[in-house]
Amino acid sequence: MICSAFATILFVWYAYATSVPRDHLVFREASSPTLGVSQEVQLSWAMYSPYFPADVYRPPPPQCKINQVHILQRHGARYPTSGAATRIEAAIAKLKAADSYTDPLLAFVENYTYILGLDDLVPFGASQSSSAGREVFQRYRSLISNEQLPFVRASSSDRVVASAKNWTAGFTAASGFRFKPVLSVILSEAGNDTLDDNMCPSAGDSSPQTSQWLATFAPPMTARLNAGAPGANLTDADTYNLLSLCAFETVATEKRSAFCDVYEELKAEGAFSYNGDLDKYYGTGYGQPLGPVQGVGYINELLARLTSKPVSDHTQTNTTLDSSPDTFPLNRTLYADFSHDNQMVAIFSAMGLFQQREPLDPTKPDPQRTWRVQRIVPFSGRMVVERMECQGTGNEQRVRVLVNDALQPLKFCGADVDGLCTLDAFVKSQAYARSDGAGDFEKCFE
């Protein structure tokens, strides 16, 4: 219900989807994510950073008119995963078992209680998705009608499904409840799913590289913590897990976590951020031999929608769903897909975004790198592909790509100064996807 006529008052909607627990669905306008910590610190949380625009959105050139939009969005802010929570709780138990706290920085630990949940969206994460839906309606309303509602899909994790439903709720509210898109397809993560990295069992992970970086940056921090908490016997891995609480507790409570004092005192910003960069680069990004191939299926779906042709893919796609106009229509003006950070990294890498001059060094960050995870896949991060017609170019359509509102250069398809490639050039540039990963997909099962 609308609580006030004033634009600054928050909007609140009751959950309308009984298939998702009530606490997953918090429909309200997101305020500026100050969260009690500086934006600089928030942006150092890598994949745990809240969404911030990486640049100011640039409308297309005046002679161009957008006629189709594709959105790929990560779920909103969440609690730690079950694995991360286990590691965090073990580190806290060690810290609380200390004989004493000789460092005032750790005095709060004596009365500290860990209360976070597992896996699910937090209220702030729900509001991020709602705000994203509102923004999309406001930006692309000219594409919307009762005959042309957004077509929405989500991977089947609760937090992804809830994010999609919050997005549709925000979109609906922004339209004055005139247009009411729904979540039409949920892709099971137990089967073929282009919105989750679940189909490459032979792929490696980033543990070798993140372990090298941990051994590089963490020992002085661990020594400081152990000196201030005699008997805790923390390891470098424990230190990392304690540092992560600055992000997790802050987004969960929307108040500054006490561990942010530790985070800032140890000057962890650069080290923690780079750990996330390495994790994604060597997890499903360019540094993982079988990383980009996990994004091929989605790109082939994107090409099908852009060209209004049936999907041609023999990798992660669900052929039953993708062959039906009910579950994979080719005539919509706006598509919104909801996914995970690891899968989005794979998709970006398969497409050719954020290429680096050299592979990331696990012991020394390159200050010139553009691979910065907080600008690529923060909580509620999104890629937008806009298709448009431009006067003076015949009937040839153009496309451009934005990631968190930052216009991508698309050198691989000869983009002009406005970031525009011809649709034909963009399709041709995606040879890796169109070849089903050039043999890499088969390696996933060797």
From TrEMBL:
SUPFAM superfamilies: Phosphoglycerate mutase-like (SSF53254). Its main location: secreted. The active site is at H75 (nucleophile), D341 (proton donor). The keyword Glycoprotein applies. Residues 1-17 form the signal peptide. It holds the Pfam family His_Phos_2. Keywords: Disulfide bond, Glycoprotein, Hydrolase, Secreted, Signal. It catalyses: 1D-myo-inositol 1,2,4,5,6-pentakisphosphate + H2O = 1D-myo-inositol 1,2,5,6-tetrakisphosphate + phosphate; 1D-myo-inositol 1,2,5,6-tetrakisphosphate + H2O = 1D-myo-inositol 1,2,6-trisphosphate + phosphate; 1D-myo-inositol 1,2-bisphosphate + H2O = 1D-myo-inositol 2-phosphate + phosphate; 1D-myo-inositol 1,2,6-trisphosphate + H2O = 1D-myo-inositol 1,2-bisphosphate + phosphate. PROSITE patterns: HIS_ACID_PHOSPHAT_1 (PS00616), HIS_ACID_PHOSPHAT_2 (PS00778). Disulfide bonds join C64-C390, C200-C444, C246-C260, C413-C421. PANTHER family: 3-PHYTASE B (PTHR20963:SF24), MULTIPLE INOSITOL POLYPHOSPHATE PHOSPHATASE-RELATED (PTHR20963). This is Phytase A. It comes from Trametes coccinea (strain BRFM310) (Pycnoporus coccineus).
